[in-house]
Every structure is written in C-alpha cells, then in structure tokens.
TrEMBL record:
Record carries keyword Kinase: no
Similarity comment: Belongs to the tRNA methyltransferase O family.
Name assigned to this protein: tRNA (N6-threonylcarbamoyladenosine(37)-N6)-methyltransferase TrmO
Gene that this sequence comes from: tsaA
Annotated GO MF terms: methyltransferase activity
UniProt-listed Pfam families: TrmO_C (PF18389), TrmO_N (PF01980)
Amino acid sequence: MEIKPIAHFRSPFKSKFGIPKQAGLVAELEGEIVFEPEYRNADALRGIEGFDYLWLIWEFSANRHAAKSPVVRPPVLGGNEKVGVFATRSPFRPNNIGLSSVRLSHVEWESSRGPVIHVKGADLMDGTPIYDIKPYVVYADCHPEARSGFVDERQWYKLQVEISDTVKTFLLSQGMTEEKIGILKEVLSQDPRPHYQKDPHKVYGMPYEGMDIHFTVCNQILTVVK
C-alpha cells in the first residue's frame, strides 16, 4: 500500500526536543492541521465539529535511522529496562507510524490555507505529515478499567518549573501571553531531558515558539535561565 500525507501539523516545536511524551499530557498545547491543496475541501470535514476528540495517524518523520532492535528502553522505566517495541509507544518502530488522540478545539472553515483544524494536547512536531484523521468514539474507544502494563507500575513525577520575573518580562515582550507562558511551564514540567541526562549543571536548550528556552534541572526543580 502506498500512502501520502493528507495534511501537515503546525505546532510550537521545531524539533523533537521538548515535545510531550504522549498526547494529552499538556492539555492546552495548541496546534493546527493544515491540509494539502487537494484535500482542502470543507465537505471532507462535514460533521467533524460534533466530536470532542480525534485520532491522528501520522509519521515519525524526524527519525533519522531505521529501527533495527526488537526491544527499546521506555523513558517511564528510566531508560534502563528493555521491553519489546510492540509493548511500547516508542517512536523507533519497524514502520514510523504514530497514533495520537487530540482534543478538537474548532475548525477555521475559511482561510488562505483552506479549512484548518485547531486541536489541543497533541504530541507532534511542527511539519509532521498526517496520513489520516478519524473521530474518537467513546463507546468503542474508551476503556477506563483497562490495564496499562508496566506504565501502571511506575509513577511519572512532574518537575517544579521556575521562571524569573526578568525572563517572564522578556517572553511577554516577544508576544507570548500569560496563557502561553503557562502552557510553556506545563511543557517543561514534563521533563524534556533525555532519560540518560541527569547533570544538574548542564544547560539545556529547547526551541519553542520561535525562541530558544534555556534551562537547568536540579532536585526536581527546572529553572529557566534565559
């Protein structure tokens, strides 16, 4: 089967670094689905606003190397334990296909880019190819009592995020709103560092909203330094 993108995703993340590890972890994180010219037809979206959530089928397009190992090291296990690739949501898979459930915010029906779907809570990088969109249906897709394997056994702790008044003033001067700064703090609280990086003196850089956010992490406290 040959497939091609029907759309591409637009988000604040220009690289993989810092993207939430799962959809929905940063609920208010905004993104857009911009269709390819041949799919910019409002009829293809007729009825979509009746759904609160959508499934996106997309490509891990930033992966530079083909997956060769049958096992991976999930971050939730600290990056030290191996489990089978098909028992994880690792981006390094035989086929680079991603699946995410996102919240439908609204549809911008008339724009220079055709109909644009605005969503929240996505875990996609800017420019990610999207191959299909399907509605999330509660009676078939929701399983609240389901087990989640090794994920149930490990608790994910958020970091405390500190942004100084000086840095906050700069962010506001660059056009970020208080709401967007709050979303940035929620993104950072998910601990963007690679699982093998624990140096409290290391300064990390994360592209976000056209800026480079530099931070350190020490004793579960993330501090934005510039």
